[in-house]
Input
Amino acid sequence: MSPSRPTWVAGNWKMQGSLAGNAALVTALKAGLPKALKGEIVLCAPYPYLEQVARLLSGSEMTLGAQDVSAHAAGAFTGEVSAAMLADFGCRYVLVGHSERRQLHGEADPMVAEKFGAALQSGLRPVLCLGETLSEREAGQTEKVVIRQMEAVLALHGVAAFQNAILAYEPVWAIGTGRVAAPEEAEAVHRTLRERLAAEDNAIAAGLRIVYGGSVKADNAPSLFNQPNIDGGLIGGASLKAEDFLAICRAANF
Ligand code: PEP
Output
């Protein structure tokens, strides 16, 4: 972590939760965290629970996020949820391009870039998820893949759009597998992304938070967060248990 960038840690609950379970989880997180946070902690809840979690978060500095957003502003898009609706419910962040959306729902770079723009239009901060598959890594294509994914957004929105965004490097082979990237491996990818952006704008690149996701747990979090270009984490499985998520937040200095 670099002292010049505020730490950012988010929990991605995926399609998990219940009214009772969410209440217990958020209550335990509020009790276990200091009132004044040094950076940002975001809870990305499933759509139906956004209102509940927003209510539960009152009196806390943790903020609300969503896991996906429509690329469209409004209209005949059955089942989709617009960025304005998410903002209405108090969301500050939204994930775009999570690997599960890319792989299971066929979201390609151009659509992810549109979603990124839709989020910004409604005042949400997009969390752009990037990452290579195992076969891409084995073929030595990691950097090429993540740069391509980032450049799709750069081409559509320009570098200024990254002022209000987060990048989440999540190697697909590490998500939910228990197989975490080595800190130096992740750091190298983060540095590559920052350098690519610095070629467009040094100040924006220096201020951008690039977080790591993929099987982050309390025991591996400290060595990941110690890397100079890793500014926090996007946490899936370990964000569902208060004790695990709190331990990760502590490793991130909250
Ligand atoms: C994720 O869902 O983005 C994620 C990183 O999951 P996990 O921490 O379970 O690997």
Remarks:
- Residues 12, 14, 170, 175-176, 213-216, 234-238 surround phosphoenolpyruvate (CB under 6 Å).
- The domain at 8-251 is CATH 3.20.20.70 (TIM Barrel).
- The mean pLDDT is 97.
- The beta strands are 8-12, 40-44, 63-66, 91-96, 125-130, 166-169, 209-213, 232-235.
